[in-house]
Amino acid sequence: MYQIKVIGIGGIGTNLLFFLPRYLNTKTLINHQERYCLSLIDGDSVEPKNLQRQAFRDFGQKAEVKSRELSGELRLLSIRPVCEYVGRDNISQLIESGDIVFLCVDNHETRKLISDHCEVLEDVILISGGNELTDGNVQTFIRTGSKNLTYPITKFHPEIQNATGKTPREMNCGELAARPGGEQILVTNVAVASRMLETFWKVEQEMLDKIGEVYFDLKEGTTNTIVRSLNHEQAEKRKDGQTRKGRKTQNSAGLEKKQSPAGRRKKVRNGDRKALDSQTSTKKGRRKKSKRFAKRP
Fold it and tell me: For 61, which DSSP code?
C-alpha cells in the first residue's frame, strides 16, 4: 500500500485534497492492486476566518474534519487523521522511507525540518508548495536507493536553508495565536494545489526531465519551470562540454585554413622586398655609373 502524507490542511492543503483523493480513488478503481493510505497531518483547528479560502463542513481539528468528509465520499481510500504539527520529536514516526509527501505548510522552519529529514531517508518523494498573494512555486525532491535524483528544496532557497525560528509544534498557544498570517486569495491557493497534483502525475510517469521548480505569477500570466534533476544537469554539462570542444576543433581548423593565405601574403611581401632591393641596387648602380662618367673630362 502506498503511503501518501499531506502536511498542512490550510489554504493549499484543502484545495489539494479536493483533487488528490479523487485522483487516487480513480486509480484504485481502475487497478485494484494500487491501494493508497492517505494521512492528513495538521495540529490546527478550523476557525470561522478559515472558511474564506479553506473548504470545511464542520468545526474541530482540521485533520479530523477533513478525514470524515473524504472517508464518506471515497470508499476505496484508507484515510487517517493525524492531529499534530510536525516537529523534531515526532518527524521520524510521521515521515518514513517510501512515503510520498505533499508539503503545504506556511513556514520555512517546517519546510527545512522536513527537507533535512527526507535527505536521510532511503526512498522518498517530497512535493512542496507555497505562495504569496498572486504568485507561488512548487518544488520537488526525489530520493531513490539513498541517492538524490533532484536537489533538496533547501538548495536554491537560503530563506529555507537558514530558517532558525520555531516550528508551530515548538510554539506555545500564545505564540501560535500571534503568528502573522500573510494576505492570501483562494485563486492562488488553487493554482499551487493544481500544480502540485500535476507534478505528482509527472513523477508517476517518470518524467524526470520535466520535473523541477515551478514558478508562476497570476498577474503576469507566466509559468516557468527550472529543471532540478541531477541527471538532467549532468547531461546538460556533458552537452555543453561537447559543444565547447566542437567549437575549439572548428576554431583550430579555421586557423589552419587561415595560415595558408597568410603564408602566401608573407611570400608575396618577401617577394616585393626582394624586387625592391633589386630595384634599389640597380638605381645605386646607375648613380655610380653616372658619377663615374661625370668625372671624365
Answer: B
221 and 247 together in one domain = no
Give the residue among 106, 86, 105, 104 at the shortest CA–CA distance from 96.
86
CB of 50 closer than 8 Å to CB of 93:
no
Q: Which domain holds residue 124?
A: 2-228
pTM of the model: 0.79
Q: Is 77 in the same domain as 38?
A: yes
Quote the CA–CA distance of 58 and 277 in Å, as a whole number: 108
Nearest-angstrom CA–CA distance, 1 and 167 = 30
Distance from C-alpha of 114 to C-alpha of 106, rounded to nearest angstrom: 13
Strand partners, 102: 6, 127
pLDDT over 80 (residue 21): yes
Find the angle CA(11)-CA(16)-CA(107) to the nearest 5 degrees: 45
Instruction: For residue 207, give the DSSP letter.
Output: -
Q: At what angle do helices 11-30 and 186-204 cross, to 10 degrees?
A: 30
**Whether 28 and 127 share a structural domain:** yes
11-30 helix and 62-73 helix, angle to the nearest 10 degrees: 30
Half-sphere exposure of 188 (CA within 13 A, CB side): 19
Q: Are residues 52 and 185 in the same domain?
A: yes
Is it the case that residue 173 has pLDDT exceeding 90? no
Q: Quick check: 177 and 44 in contact, CB under 8 A?
A: no
CB 67 within 8 A of CB 82: no
Whole-angstrom Cα distance, residue 21 to residue 37?
A: 10
In three-state form (DSSP H/G/I as H, E/B as E, the rest C), the secondary structure along 159-173 is HHHCCCCCCHHHCCH
203 to 27, 56, 78, 100, 142: CA distances (angstroms): 15, 29, 22, 10, 9
34-52 pLDDT, tens digit per residue, is: 899 999 999 999 999 888 8
Cα separation, 190 vs 16, whole angstroms: 8
The CA distance from 8 to 115, in Å, is: 15
